[in-house]
Write a structure and sequence with these properties.
CATH topology of the largest domain: Metal Binding Protein, Guanine Nucleotide Exchange Factor, Chain A
Mean pLDDT: 94
Oligomer: single chain
CATH architecture of the largest domain: Beta Complex
Shape: elongated
CATH class of the largest domain: Mainly Beta
Largest sheet: 8 strands, antiparallel
Distance between the termini: 47 Å
């Protein structure tokens, strides 16, 4: 699997020899060969950290033209015995590079976990969404989205939502498994519930069926699910 990272238009790393680390309570992390990182871009840092499972980490910053990114990369020069496989590899803070690719597809948010699943199923359960005590959506034709490590989320078709109560939001978020989400706020009476609804305009393949649907959460939002 080819992993490539780009900063300021310069390919910082390009490798087919990376490893994916799964560590309890943390997102998946790529470790990539130092030999496949542009050595001329590395600026050694005085920063060090200690991990009781991996050892002492040393850091590098990146200098690409006028762009300087501090402590973007770390490596374990003498990893602990149980993490000996880390020798010669380096980890990146994902968001400190501009763009990441897995083969030729851009990766968003963080490295994708091959064991993470997103499944969607149509459901005829009766779902009512209330905002500030007022019913703002009701349907028996939702899509239930099941995602590894998360509770089920219900996505409701836009015609079954009181969209006249929805206000704009500048908020977005990125999920490496579903895509980029946009948000809406609910204006109920004199109350505004910020970012209470979200949607994926162009979801990735695993979540393609929720395009044109909205899901809901947040303080003041109640979701009632019953079988009719």
């Amino acid at each position: 699997m080819c992993i490539r990272g780009v900063l300021a238009g310069e390919t910082v790393v390009d490798t087919r020899h990376g490893r994916l680390l799964h560590e309890s309570g943390m997102l998946p992390q790529w470790y990539l060969p130092l030999a496949d990182i542009g050595a001329y871009l590395l600026v050694e840092s005085s920063t060090t950290t200690h991990c009781p499972f991996k050892g002492d980490a040393s850091y590098f910053s990146l200098q690409v033209g006028d762009r300087f990114v501090e402590d973007a990369i770390w490596t374990y020069r003498t990893p602990l015995a149980e993490a000996a496989w880390l020798d010669g590899l380096a980890g990146f803070y994902f968001d400190r590079l501009d763009t990441w690719y897995q083969e030729d597809d851009e990766v968003f948010g963080h490295p994708r976990d091959p064991f993470h699943r997103v499944d969607t199923h149509r459901t005829s359960q009766h779902i009512v969404v209330r905002a500030g005590g007022e019913t703002v959506a009701e349907t028996t034709r939702a899509i239930a989205l099941f995602e590894t490590g998360l509770g089920v989320r219900y996505y409701l078709p836009e015609p079954d939502v009181a969209t006249e109560l929805l206000g704009p939001s500048e908020t977005t978020s990125v999920c490496p498994y579903k895509g980029t989400a946009g948000y809406r706020s609910f204006n109920v009476g004199v109350q505004t519930i910020a970012d209470a609804a979200w949607f994926y305009e162009a979801p990735f393949a695993e979540a393609s069926s929720v395009a044109g649907y909205l899901s809901f959460d947040g303080t003041g939002i109640d979701i009632e699910v019953t079988d009719d």
